[in-house]
Amino acid sequence: MERKNSYTYEDLLACAHGKLFGEGNARLPLPPMLMLDRIVKIVSDGGKYGKGEIEAELDIKPNLWFFPCHFESDPIMPGCLGLDAMWQLVGFFLGWMKAPGKGRAISVGEVKFSDMVTPAAKKITFKIDIKKVLMRKFGIAIADGTMFIDGKPAYECKDMRVGVFPDGMAPAAA
């Protein structure tokens, strides 16, 4: 795998199909659950904590799948999709760092919603600051993230935890 500092939508789809980090390693979900159109920046030594940084974008189109069903006559993007997008990015970072195994969201310490995504929005920007990366028999990253709607902060997450686990090591579903 060639480590790049930005990724197109086609690259993200290749990741979803297991072709970016290799079979059995971190993947993004396929559309419609893929909540990213591109990763515009990914580095291992930047961000607020100097441990890594990811910036990604999602273009908002009024016909996105979640608007008609959440809620009828009052369309907004479910908040959990914004959180999931940030978890997706932390998992992508671990794959990019060559941590082997399948990605799993583990937890989040704190989530704050201060705005909502409506069909009138144009672009969501995600900014992830990696706080810590542990590479043992499995990899774990801890990160903070902010989701911006048209440049204004809307969601803030503290202490998101994502792991990548080789076969047989993934935590069981509760």
TrEMBL record:
<keyword id="KW-0276">Fatty acid metabolism</keyword>
<keyword id="KW-0456">Lyase</keyword>
<keyword id="KW-0413">Isomerase</keyword>
<comment type="pathway">
    <text>Lipid metabolism; fatty acid biosynthesis.</text>
</comment>
<comment type="subunit">
    <text>Homodimer.</text>
</comment>
<dbReference type="GO" id="GO:0034017">
    <property type="term" value="F:trans-2-decenoyl-acyl-carrier-protein isomerase activity"/>
</dbReference>
<comment type="similarity">
    <text>Belongs to the thioester dehydratase family. FabA subfamily.</text>
</comment>
<dbReference type="InterPro" id="IPR029069">
    <property type="entry name" value="HotDog_dom_sf"/>
</dbReference>
<keyword id="KW-0275">Fatty acid biosynthesis</keyword>
<dbReference type="InterPro" id="IPR013114">
    <property type="entry name" value="FabA_FabZ"/>
</dbReference>
<dbReference type="Pfam" id="PF07977">
    <property type="entry name" value="FabA"/>
</dbReference>
<dbReference type="InterPro" id="IPR010083">
    <property type="entry name" value="FabA"/>
</dbReference>
<keyword id="KW-0444">Lipid biosynthesis</keyword>
<keyword id="KW-0443">Lipid metabolism</keyword>
<protein>
    <recommendedName>
        <fullName>3-hydroxyacyl-[acyl-carrier-protein] dehydratase FabA</fullName>
        <ecNumber>4.2.1.59</ecNumber>
    </recommendedName>
</protein>
<keyword id="KW-0963">Cytoplasm</keyword>
<dbReference type="GO" id="GO:0019171">
    <property type="term" value="F:(3R)-hydroxyacyl-[acyl-carrier-protein] dehydratase activity"/>
</dbReference>
